[in-house]
TrEMBL record:
InterPro entries: ANTH_dom, ANTH_dom_sf, AP180-like, ENTH, ENTH_VHS. GO terms for molecular function: 1-phosphatidylinositol binding; clathrin heavy chain binding; phosphatidylinositol-4,5-bisphosphate binding; SNARE binding. Belongs to the PICALM/SNAP91 family. This is ENTH domain-containing protein. The lineage of its organism: Eukaryota, Metazoa, Chordata, Craniata, Vertebrata. One of its GO terms (biological process) is synaptic vesicle budding from presynaptic endocytic zone membrane. Its main location: membrane. GO terms for cellular component: clathrin-coated pit; clathrin-coated vesicle; extrinsic component of presynaptic endocytic zone membrane; synaptic vesicle. PROSITE patterns: ENTH. Residues 14-145 form the ENTH domain. It comes from Poecilia mexicana.
Length: 227
């Protein structure tokens, strides 16, 4: 049985009537069902970011509208969908997010509809801070730490100038710190929504640590050369 609410169906139908398939897919990915956003909707949105005819700002604005929902489920799934597109979508999506003066302002978000809402609201506030930091890092560095080549002598952080490294390492450290601040425990991973978020964060952390390791190696080698 579908867990979509009448509100979900009405929202999707409204976008169908206006001819916005991308916005409809955003709504479908961010329903009130306590499950991860469906793969078919995420894949559709990823492909949409590759299409030069698709209005990326409109896609982002629709996601922001969903983030403004009162339900923790819808907000969490909108953040997960945004994160998924930042990682797997065309780079112009994250470029647009990084160009905005403000992204997610959820420091006071609280769903009071039950104890589960209270618990998940805490993670939503932490998650939004991380995504803000991820976009900020892109704005400062003009690249995504998670997307660059890592672990090789010709990797981005291995070949970066010392001057740029000294600028980039604190930014990378801040992004790692904001991710670790999510601070989830096994007992909290009790629904498909937060599990989907945790998986994305875990994969990001591996990539960020690889970048950090490359940066440290570059700095150490640079110091040795100068001694």
């Amino acid at each position: 049985m579908s867990g979509q609410t009448l509100t979900d169906r009405i929202a999707a139908a409204q976008y169908t009537l206006t001819g916005s398939e991308v916005s409809r897919a955003v709504c479908k990915a961010t329903t009130h069902e306590q499950t991860a956003p469906k793969k078919k909707h995420l894949e559709y949105l990823i492909q949409a970011t590759q299409d030069s005819n698709v209005n990326v700002p409109q896609m982002a604005d629709t996601l922001m509208e969903r983030v403004g929902n009162a339900s923790w489920v819808v907000v969490f799934k909108a953040l997960i969908t945004t994160h998924h597109l930042m990682v797997h979508g065309n780079e112009r999506f994250v470029q647009f997010l990084a160009s905005r003066n403000t992204l997610f302002n959820l420091s006071n978000f609280l769903d009071k509809t039950g104890s589960h809402g209270y618990d998940m609201s805490t993670f939503i506030r932490r998650y939004s801070r991380y995504l803000n930091e991820k976009a900020f890092a892109y704005r400062q560095m003009s690249f995504d730490f998670g997307r660059v080549k890592k672990g090789y002598a010709d990797g981005a952080m291995r070949t970066m100038s010392v001057e740029k490294l000294l600028k980039g390492m604190p930014i990378l450290q801040s992004q790692i710190d904001s991710l670790l601040d999510f601070e989830v425990h096994p007992k909290d991973l009790n629904n498909g929504v937060i599990n989907a978020c945790f998986l994305l964060l875990f994969k990001d952390l591996i990539k960020l640590y690889a970048c950090y390791n490359d940066g440290i190696i570059n700095l150490v080698l640079g110091v040795k050369v100068n001694i």
